[in-house]
Design brief:
Layout (H helix, E strand, L loop, with lengths): L10 E6 L6 E2 L4 E2 L10 E5 L5 H11 L4 E6 H6 L3 E4 L8 E5 L9 H10 L1 E5 L4
Antiparallel strand pairs: 1-4, 1-5, 2-3, 4-7, 5-8, 6-7
């Protein structure tokens, strides 16, 4: 089965969990570590929903320090491969992979994503 194409205009959302190495407090941005995962960077597609609705869902699902977003097209400019990975209870689930054949992002790809994301929600207390 071929992976479902995600349009360049679709927005991807990443929940940034409160792990110390996932946030750079000095610049108030996620670190590249938040985008390193050997199983793929788990994200939610907007799927036509408002950003505030996606943020609310991610906050209800996880304990998060922040929620960030990035257009799929911007991900692709860094050579990454966003792929739809719907789950039974989460049809909007997707992952960002290194390429069509490799999963874990390079350090450079992770760094580029961490610098390019837009901050949608931040909780300084968590």
């Amino acid at each position: 089965m071929l992976p479902q194409i995600i349009s360049d205009e679709e927005i991807l959302f990443r929940a940034i969990k409160p792990f110390p190495n996932w946030w750079k407090f000095d610049i108030n941005r996620p670190s590249s570590a938040a985008f390193k995962d050997s199983r793929g960077v788990s994200v939610d597609r907007d799927a036509g929903r408002q950003s505030s609705q996606v943020v609310q869902i991610l906050r209800a699902r996880f304990s998060v320090r922040a929620v960030v977003s990035i257009p799929t097209g911007v991900c692709r400019t860094f050579g990454t491969y966003p792929v739809a990975k719907p789950l039974p209870n989460q049809p909007e689930h997707a992952e960002i992979h290194r390429s069509e054949s490799e999963v874990e992002l390079t350090s450079g790809q992770a760094r580029n994503l961490s610098r390019a994301v837009r901050l949608e929600f931040f909780d300084p207390v968590i």
